[in-house]
Design a protein that fits this description.
The protein is an all-alpha fold and 291 residues long. It is 71% helix and 0% strand. The longest helix has 36 residues, at 80-115. It starts with 13 loop residues before the first helix and ends with a helix.
Amino acid sequence: MTTTSIPLPARKPAGRRALRSLRRHPTLYLGCAILILLALAALAAPWLATIDPQDIDPLARMKPPSAEHLFGTDALGRDVYSRTIRGARVSLLVGAAVALASTVIGVALGMLAGYFRRVDALIMRVMDGLMAIPGVLLAIALMATLKGGLGTVVIAIVIPEIPRVVRLVRALVLTIREQPYIEAAVASGTRVPAILLRHILPNLFAPLMVQATFIAASAILTEAVLSFLGVGIPPHTPSWGNIMAEGRNFVAVAFHIILYPGLFLGVTVLAVNLVGDGLRDMLDPRLAKKL
């Protein structure tokens, strides 16, 4: 007895698949590449920053960029390059921490609001109240109430971002809970925690990943605004916001003080938004069919 084997279709080489993916989602890969470079620079800041960012040199005040000071010096003679590289740590840490914390809290509240009608009204009225206050003003009020520091900045930015996630998750859960497989799970006696964790939560990952990137970009900008206004990161800790705040009075004579941290801030926010757009294009099945 002879058997015939059906030949399997040949798999495309990994390099060709990677190239095809790059062509379909160039913004995703470009944003990831920029963020990886920034993260590596932030981690290697002690080695890349050859001058202590806190060293004051009155004789080198507001010097233009040179071989000794790549980005020039500020009004106290501190090296702007070293302070800008160190500031990347603060911005990336704040962006990641705010995105993670607001997503975790928002998912928990949103799933409760979407699945349990009894607590829906209470949770959503609180979220509507938070959304009625502009995020920056609410963060400033929280910073004025709490003790300053990196942790306080994260908390002050997380609270205004939570309602975004809650509303998104609630809308998704209200749709998912009407699906036949959820009704079948309820009919079979599956407990509510198992339904939420096994059947509903996995369907939230794709939109939440996209939302988290936009929250990270917004958090980086908000931290810079708070530091620029003097209610964010303390002045002794270099951040892009307080570096620009210290140089705003010297724009006419030393524009480089705000130029380079501003460029780093803009590139970072752009990279995070590129990652968000790329994830949206890759994870949305309707957009994937058009590509």
